[in-house]
Structures are given as structure tokens and as C-alpha cells.
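call fold(seq) -> C-alpha cells
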Amino acid sequence: MKLSQSSGVPIYQQVSDWFRDEILAGRYKQGEYLPSIRGLAKDLKISVITTIKAYETLEQEGLVTAVQGKGYYVNAQDSEMLKEQHMRKVETALQEAIKASKIAEISKEELLETLETLYDMDEE
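ret:
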């Protein structure tokens, strides 16, 4: 995990975003524990408070649950929730692409053609 002090995104948010992506991608499985708060803080050279805030953010989103004395473990992920989370990411990326295409004066047809080409290339 790479953290950026200059990105404008708070460190705790960068940490929670990274874990959210890992959980939603299935790299952290149901019941698996996240790294300990102190261990992660030490590894990333961030404060324990920042780590706690990141984990609490994930807990508020329903992705993890805290167990007293054990840490945070990954909750079962409902497939509809997973699809919705991914759909939001796709919508955000597409909104950025639409903005960029309008600035570059790329037509809707050219944008759709580019999307289709990229989509098809990824299937190969």
C-alpha cells in the first residue's frame, strides 16, 4: 500500500479505500482478520489513531467487524452490495471520462467506440 502525503486525501481515507478495494476484490475473505492496528501503523509509519479511524470507517460501511481483544475481521459480502459498490466506481470513472472527452471535444460516438474497444481488449 502506498500512501501519499500530498494527494489531498486524508491518510486514514487512503488506508480505508485500499482495504475496501481489497475486500471488494475478494483478496480479503470472509472471516479473515485485518492486520493489527499497531502492526499496520508501524508498517505504514502512521499513527495508531489514523489506523483506528481507517478501520472504524470500514466498520461503519459494514465491511468489517471489531472483536474485542482480537481486532477487525472481514464480514460476509452480499453479492448485490458488491455489485453496487463496483457500479459506483464505474460511474465515477465514466463521469471523469465524459468530462475529459468534452474538454477534448471528443464526440459521444468516439467515446463509446473507445469504451467498446477497451472493453473488448480486456477480454482477450
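The mean pLDDT is 90.
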